[in-house]
Amino acid sequence: MIYILAAIFLWSSLGIVIKLSGVSVHVLMFFSGMISVLLVGSVLSKREFKSEMPKGKNIVYFLALGLVSLINTFLFFYAYKHTSIANAVLTHYTAPVIVAFLAPVFLRERLTMKILLAVAVATAGLWIMLGVSAGELFRLAVAGDRNTGGIIAGLFSGLAYAILIILIRILAKDFNPLVLTFFQNLIIAAVLAPFVFSTPRLLDSLTSAWWVFAVMGVVHSTVAPVLYFRGMRDVTAGKTAILGYLEPVCAIFLGALFLSEAVNLTTVIGGAMILFSGYLTIRS
């Protein structure tokens, strides 16, 4: 569980880095992914890792891991770019609700009353923090509101994240976290490459935001995923998803601290509920 909590804390700083970068989402994803591929690939080139490479039908699972991760990350980064950090992370973390009901079907994990209670408390806290109904979100999206576009992207990234958690739980038991991290980023970079190298003023982005690629490549695309994949060996998908609710709390706090984003009373109340749900999960 400590591995997952450490990964969540590292990922919670993503919003700040993305907002300060001024770089397109697909460019950020590509270059941070490539840095991770080079770092992890240099380790995996050693002979002792040769037997851990995926073979046969497992290649299909790895391909799915990369593509779902691409969808999840792109939509999440898009949400960060087009709405506040609070709105992006809160909508993204609709995932635990979905995972709570998918895990018993696909992973044969027990759906206990404690997990249901934790999901209910965290979800209530999420919507208190968000402060808008589902109907209002839809109305704003139809009207073309830019902020709402980011919120909608966050909601769909939550769906992709739920599927991703299920896939990781399946693969984490049998594969080294470094192998999972390497192939995830390799597939993302391969898919994005044609779009990145046709981006106008790409060289300007490289020279002005090199530090962003370095930070994201090492911290968010390498260290955090390795910790997360390692933690998923021992923690159920349902509990992992609920622990993920701690990311919005950390991200909102960091956004207020470094970007002066407002934190109101509903954010504090909702955040406290989410923290309590995390406590229930850890205690169980």
Describe this structure in words.
The structure is a single chain. By secondary structure, the protein is mainly α. It has one domain. Helix content is 80%, strand content 0%. It contains 15 helices and no strands. Helix 1 runs parallel beside helix 14, helix 3 crosses helix 12 and helix 4 crosses helix 10. The longest helix is centred in the middle third of the chain and has 27 residues. 50% of the residues are buried. The model has no long low-confidence stretch (mean pLDDT 82).
Which properties best describe this structure?
284 residues; globular
Give a quick precis of the structure.
The protein is 80% helix and 0% strand. By secondary structure, it is mainly alpha-helical. The chain has one domain.
Walk me through the topology.
Elements: H1 2-11, H2 14-21, H3 25-44, H4 58-82, H5 85-92, H6 95-106, H7 113-130, H8 134-142, H9 146-172, H10 177-196, H11 202-208, H12 210-231, H13 237-243, H14 246-259, H15 265-283
Order of H and E elements: HHHHHHHHHHHHHHH
Structural class: mainly alpha
Based on CA inertia axes, which overall geometry fits? globular
Q: Low-confidence runs (pLDDT<50, min 5 residues)?
A: none
Beta-strand segment tally: 0
Total number of helices: 15
What is the distance, rounded to the nearest whole angstrom, between the alpha carbons of the first and last residues?
12 Å
Q: Tell me the fraction of residues in β-strands, as a range.
A: under 5%
Radius of gyration, in angstroms, nearest whole number: 18 Å
Fraction of helical residues: over 70%
Average pLDDT, rounded to a whole number, is: 82
Largest sheet: none
Number of domains: 1
